């Protein structure tokens, strides 16, 4: 069995689209079709049901997919084992990170990793969680690091860090019911004060809404003044007095220390989220494996 044909089959089985498969593999659609046809002829069986809009695995195709994933996992394991025995870790590693992680957490880890593995060339793409997962699916990145409670069945997913979300306000925050001694606001104030928040599709936005629901708050009742696409813009908007926000504690340490922003609390409300590493277990490189081990050891 031709391993290249099996790779094309594996990508097509995951994408259910000849056009998407050709983009991922950088080959023509006709080449994809030809290799699938040759594989079907070799195995004397139909692997896909084809329609004008999409392709879908047959029951025989499902069996081959299970076997193909085991084969690729074993090939990758052997490659990594041989590489680790014969030479130092080297090569390219492209990481995708959601904004909070990419701007405020991972740069410190990358610096320490680079000291230990100087022969790995690192590249980090920063975007919202939804777009990062799309890049992982299309193989534009090797590893994804996001904050999300979503489950992606096609990928391995590991928790590596817990983060706290905090409510921030301008330093000169004044409100009739505000307890300035204890920095408390009431639940009603949280829902009525103008709030600046991340855009839909952001892992931070998703987690905030889920955490509020878990604490008996309806996120639809938030008085959303602005939706912004990055943390720095949100902090600047809050500093200027436009409203409050809910943001990662890791991303606002400097401002709290310099007293350009103040932290508020709602009694009994605790907002936390988890950060995950997400990757294709069948196709992880030696630099990718080494970085996963490094970051999990770094935070544990």
From TrEMBL:
Keywords: DNA-binding, Transcription, Transcription regulation. Residues 1-58 form the HTH lysR-type domain. Pfam families: HTH_1, LysR_substrate. The keyword Nuclease does not apply. One of its GO terms (molecular function) is DNA-binding transcription factor activity. Signal peptide: none annotated. CDD domains: PBP2_CysL_like. The keyword Manganese does not apply. PROSITE patterns: HTH_LYSR. Belongs to the LysR transcriptional regulatory family. PANTHER family: HTH-TYPE TRANSCRIPTIONAL REGULATOR, HTH-TYPE TRANSCRIPTIONAL REGULATOR GLTR. This is LysR family transcriptional regulator.
